[in-house]
């Protein structure tokens, strides 16, 4: 069997699991990464053993990939994410956006790429995963209009984005570097251990008047409203 056929067969073997109802198996992503990817890479696109994560093509969308830790980290509520020694998975996710670009006619513009983590109540899987994909056209336009009014301290955005009333801050730089969005959010909370899980967390590339950077967004999740709402898995902005 060729390598391509083996990878295809492995991916297809997980189709029933990934398309099953959300309540059917909340450990599917963990099983894929732990039982398959760390052993033989496939069906993941890559495994970074040094940084403890894998990249998996999501079955939804034309270009969406997921960054998934290879250690057991249930989600945004995990105490591991409050440990400064834990890898900066958002920075890693941004560095892997070439896997999204490779599935599109051209590279996604900086202000069209987003990284999203859903709150505990707004997700179906109990393994941390960062959605890396195109921003929706509506979200892109709203954030572009507000970009130069966003400061380095958390403040509410003047406009809703994808139905969310986000609080936002700006980060300067081509990459996130040492800025860890999980830790930045935790600093705003009275009891991070109890409150982190209530929050969606999103990072979007930005082109500010004074140079490249990022817009970081968070809100307390409402029923069925996750950070992923800002994304468009059909990548309409690239058409």
UniProtKB/TrEMBL annotation:
Keyword Transmembrane attached: yes
GO molecular function: CDP-diacylglycerol diphosphatase activity
Catalytic activity: a CDP-1,2-diacyl-sn-glycerol + H2O = a 1,2-diacyl-sn-glycero-3-phosphate + CMP + 2 H(+)
Keywords linked to the UniProt accession: Cell membrane, Hydrolase, Lipid biosynthesis, Lipid metabolism, Membrane, Phospholipid biosynthesis, Phospholipid metabolism, Signal, Transmembrane, Transmembrane helix
Pfam family, one: CDH
Signal peptide residues on this chain, from the entry's feature table: 1-24
Biochemical pathway: Lipid metabolism; Phospholipid metabolism; CDP-diacylglycerol degradation; phosphatidate from CDP-diacylglycerol: step 1/1
First-tier enzyme category under EC: hydrolase
Main location: membrane
InterPro entries: CDP-diacylglyc_Pase, HIT-like_sf
Subcellular location: Cell membrane
EC number: 3.6.1.26
GO cellular component: plasma membrane
Membrane-topology annotation of the record: Single-pass membrane protein
Keyword Oxidoreductase: no
Any single GO BP term: CDP-diacylglycerol catabolic process
UniProt family annotation: Belongs to the Cdh family.
Protein name: CDP-diacylglycerol pyrophosphatase
Protein source organism: Rhizobium miluonense
């Amino acid at each position: 069997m060729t390598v391509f056929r083996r990878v295809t067969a492995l991916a297809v073997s997980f189709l029933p699991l990934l398309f099953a109802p959300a309540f059917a198996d909340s450990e599917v992503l963990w099983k894929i990464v732990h039982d398959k990817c760390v052993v033989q890479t496939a069906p993941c696109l890559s495994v970074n053993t040094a940084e403890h994560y894998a990249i998996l093509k999501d079955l939804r969308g034309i270009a969406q990939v997921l960054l998934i830790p290879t250690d057991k980290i249930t989600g945004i509520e995990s105490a591991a994410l409050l440990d400064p020694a834990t890898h900066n998975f958002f920075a890693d996710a941004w560095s892997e956006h070439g896997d999204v670009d490779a599935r599109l006619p051209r590279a996604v513009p900086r202000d069209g790429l987003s990284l999203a983590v859903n709150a505990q109540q707004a997700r179906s899987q109990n393994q941390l995963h960062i959605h890396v994909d195109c921003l929706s056209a509506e979200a892109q336009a709203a954030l572009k209009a507000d970009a130069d009014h966003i400061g380095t301290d958390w403040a509410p955005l003047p406009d809703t984005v994808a139905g969310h009333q986000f609080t936002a801050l700006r980060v300067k730089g081509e990459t996130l570097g040492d800025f860890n969005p999980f830790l930045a959010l935790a600093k705003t909370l009275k009891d991070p251990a109890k409150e982190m899980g209530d929050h969606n967390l999103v990072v979007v590339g930005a082109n500010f008047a004074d140079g490249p950077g990022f817009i970081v967004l968070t809100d307390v999740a409402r029923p069925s409203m996750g950070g992923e709402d800002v994304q468009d898995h059909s990548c309409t902005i690239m058409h």
